[in-house]
Write a structure and sequence with these properties.
Blueprint (H helix, E strand, L loop, with lengths): L5 H34 L2 H13 L14 H64 L5 H11 L13
Helix pairs in contact: 3-4
Length: 161
């Protein structure tokens, strides 16, 4: 038998090393899975066994095999959507309501500041009239007060308040 060329020998060694690495990866995965199972409490072991039994194909060519990760993800998303959908909608509704109330509070605060400023302006106008009352005739004083305060409630404007 002729000697194996150097390149073929290197490829053979590389294949052996790759196979060893794959074997080590599988061993490590198995070890991690065993650690996970060992960390389960007594109360969690039975539900885990039941879950493994239920997550198998019931019929067909894959009968008895564990469901594919794709189907497991689909089942999990269906459960999340059905269980947590109402809760998510309620949270969203409360957030919207909270935003509306914040806007309303801010608007009322600005309106209150505006009304306080108007009140202060009316008070200062009345004080000015009182100070000038000695220089103004009684009829002019009365007319100016009546211009601020109307006799009929229906005649009041927003700036009078």
């Amino acid at each position: 038998m002729p000697p194996i060329p150097k390149r073929a020998r290197q490829l053979k060694i590389a294949c052996k090393i790759k196979a060893q690495k794959l074997k080590m990866k599988k061993k490590m995965k198995l070890q991690r899975n065993n650690e996970t199972v060992n960390q389960l409490s007594e109360a969690e072991i039975k539900p885990a066994q039941h879950l493994l039994r239920q997550m198998c194909y019931p019929k067909g060519s894959h009968q008895g095999q564990i469901l594919s990760p794709y189907l497991q993800d689909k089942i999990l998303s269906f459960i999340k959507d059905s269980l947590y959908k109402d809760l998510h909608q309620k949270v969203q509704k409360l957030n919207n309501q909270n935003e509306r109330l914040i806007c309303k509070t801010q608007s009322l605060g600005s309106e209150m500041c505006h009304l306080k400023e108007q009140k202060k302006n009316h008070i200062s106008a009345i004080r000015l009239l009182v100070q000038r009352s000695s220089a103004i005739s009684q009829n002019a004083f009365k007319n100016h007060i009546e211009s601020i305060f109307k006799k009929n409630k229906n005649q009041y404007l927003a700036n009078t308040i």
